[in-house]
Each structure stands twice: as structure tokens, then as C-alpha cells.
Amino acid sequence: MDFSKKINATRRYNNNPKANVSDQFESDRGRIIQSAAIRRLQQKTQVFPLERNSAVRSRLTHSLEVQQTGRHIVRTIFKMLGETAKNYGLSTLEREMESLVEMSCLMHDIGNPPFGHFGEAAINHWFNKHLDKHVLFSQADNKMLSLQIKQELKSFEGNAQAFRIIFNLLKLNLTYSQAASILKYTRCGLDMRPDKDKPLSYLKKKVGFYYSEKQDIELLSEELDIKPGHRFPLAYLMEAADDISYCLADIEDGVEKGLLNCKQLAEHLITTFTRLSDDQADTAFLKGKSFQQAVDYALSRADKEPINKTHEFFVWLRVQLIHALVEHAASSFIDNIQQVYDGDLNRALLEDGSLFHDMISTFKEVAITHIFSTSEVETKELQGYRIITGLLDAYEPLLLMQTEAFQDMVSGEQKGGLIEARLYKRLPKKHLKAYQQALLPLADKPDFKVHEFYYRSRLIQDNISGMTDQFALEEYQNLFPK
User: Fold this and answer.
1) Is 0.90 surpassed by the pTM of this model?
2) How far is C-alpha 168 from the chain's CA centre?
3) Which pLDDT does position 143 carry in this prediction?
4) Is-catalytic flag, 268?
5) Catalytic residue at 422?
6) From 28, 216, 242, 462, the catalytic residue
């Protein structure tokens, strides 16, 4: 086991084998932070769509918190390893590993569409409803591939879209080590979800990358010695940082919005944790405190605060819980380091049946029951669903065009129809370039029409999913004025 073989500066284009690894990761950092995908996160939903209260988290502020947590986990790992870090090829890579995890945490949500997971559902519902009208799938020579492509288009996934952004839309040309650090799920969109009792089933429970990025993932995997269906080791740390960060953040935003108060929240947390952890509820595992004692202490500090009680409550809740969760994630990484290195640990670091896992599950359940299921959130989600569905309806004429007609419009040989030409002009140039470049090597291949329609559908999904919440609303209002 030698992590230095996986943490290296190899990249697909303009690769320099002699380049300094630290310098190359610093270059990655600049490319990521200065990318449009990161800037758009400031106007994308975390929980509350189209939120005007700047104290409530956006995807960007959430990602910054995840970034800090990821950095904290890496530093804790190296403190725990001490001199033994050299046994794993890590003795000189603390700064490099820290940078990779930080940037993967910052990037982890860049593929999310407007309105969060409800936006994903809206895209998938629309394509499930409308793809069957296109007969070219049944007319293809390779029926199996055609069926797989059709199924993948019905399975839009933010994690997979992130790789599409990195490799083919923004062409960031990141080091393979940096790109692989966000490979949370390892299943190609062409493949079916495996049964839960199958090997690597957790790692393949969602689509991790699309057919359009399959070659990029294969090259990355070959360079970093990642077996098919396996994970890159640092992706476990990115996932743990996300789990730790959002478990408290979503609930804090709910309290900030007035959906429940600190006392009500404390009661829900204690009741839920006691139920989930059975007879272990009073175990002192948080620096000598039980979960209930930690929550009660945070509430007592809030009661003593005369003005900003909510802030005081969450400060002390976070102080008591986050550090303990970070230490547990670091310990889990070290305890399972061989499986993590091989990329076949078939669970998240924190999904280990421990009291820490119960704690994470408690926050998730309380958020689902008392935040996500409230009328305000569900109303906003329905509005987001209508906006996404309406935009896809508006752009459907581009998908209904015959292959030759659309190709002629792209090449400039024909202007296109009255509606189609105007819709075409609204598509971002970088997305059109990705569409054209993807088709260049396929011009003389069998089933070109199926592949062309696949990339045209990707073009529409790229356009809609790349919008911010506010831009999607404005585009909807422009296309469907009252």
C-alpha cells in the first residue's frame, strides 16, 4: 500500500511527468476556484429554493463548510498516524492530500441542477415521459446499447454531471488525482443498479458517471490503478465531510427560517436518537457526555443568552459534535485503510453502526421530518419542478428535429425552423462545442443517429442543469410570460 502511487500530478492534456506535485495541485486549486461552476453555486439551492435570506445556506456556503470539514479530517488523520504515515507512503503528502480533499469538497455539488434534488427528479420525470416517442432507439442496429443510452438519459444525476462539467463542458483538465477525489459513485449510466447483497453495491447505488465520460473515467482509473467499480480513496473523506457538515446545517437553516425553535429541535433530537440507538442512548461518547447531555448543554447555553439564542445553541451543539465526528471519520479511515486504499469499502466511513452513525442518522431523520416536509419547502419544490418541466417543454422542439435538420442548423447550412432557430441561439456556446466535439469521432460509426440524439439530449440537460435557481426562474418567465 503506497498512497504516493495514487496521489500524483498526472493529467490528460499537457501532462508533465517531471512536474512538482504540490505545484500541480495548486494549479488545480486555481482552476477550480476560478471556474464558472463554483460561482454558480452561490445561487443554487441547498434546502430552500430562491431564498432571499443570505444567512440561509446556498450550495456555495454549504460547500465551503464541507471544505473546512474535509481539511479538518485530513489533519486529524495525520495527527493520529504520526510517524506511521511513512508506512503508507503518506509521510510527505499531508499538504497535497489536504489540498485534494479540500477542493473535492468544494466541487462535490457542482453538477447539481437548479432546485437541488427536486430539480434532478424533474429532469428525470420529464425524460421518462417524453423519450419513448422517439422511434430511433428501436430502429438502431445495436439494440442493447440503444436501450442502455435511453435508460441513462432518464437517470440524470448531479454526481455524474459534475464529471461532465470537469471533463467536457469546462475542460478544466484537472490532475486525475483531483478529479477522482469526487468519484462518489462508481457506476456508469449504462449499467443497472446492482442488488444490495452484491459486491460494491453501495458504491454503485447511483450513477457516478455518464456514457459520455466513460473513456475519461477509464483513462483516469488506469492511471491511478482503480479497479472497475472501485473508489479512489480520498473520495471517502469527501463523502464523510459532506455527511458531517450538512447533518447540522440543514436543521440550523430550518430554525433560522422559523420552522421550529431550539427547544422543539432539542426534544426531536433526543427522542429520535434514543429510538435509533436503542439502549445505548446514555453512553458517554462525546468527551464524557451522552448525546442528550450534549444537546441539553447547548440548550442551557442558549437559555442564558439574552439576545441571539439560536446562534448560541448551534455554536455549542457544533463545538461538542463536529470535532467528535471528525475524529471518528479519521479513525474509521485508518481502521479500514487497506479497503479504503483498494477502494472496495462498501459503505461510507460513518455508516458503521456506531453511536456516531446513529447521531448522523438522527439529524437526517429530524431534517426530513421537520424541515424538508414542511409546507414552505414543499411549495418551493413544486414551483421548482414546474419551472424545470416548463423549460424542458420549451426546448423540446430541438429534440423533435430530425438528425439531419439539427446537424444542418449546427453547421450553419440551414437556419432551422422559426422556433427551433431561436431556441438554438439561447444555448451556451461551451455546451454546443461539447456537443460538436463529442460527435466528431462518431461521424462514420454505426448508429450515428442514436449517438447524435444522445448528445443532443445531453446538450439540453447541460443547459437546464447548469442554470442557477434565479436564472431558471427568469428564463421560465421570459418564455412563459403572464
Assistant:
1) yes
2) 17
3) 87
4) no
5) yes
6) 242
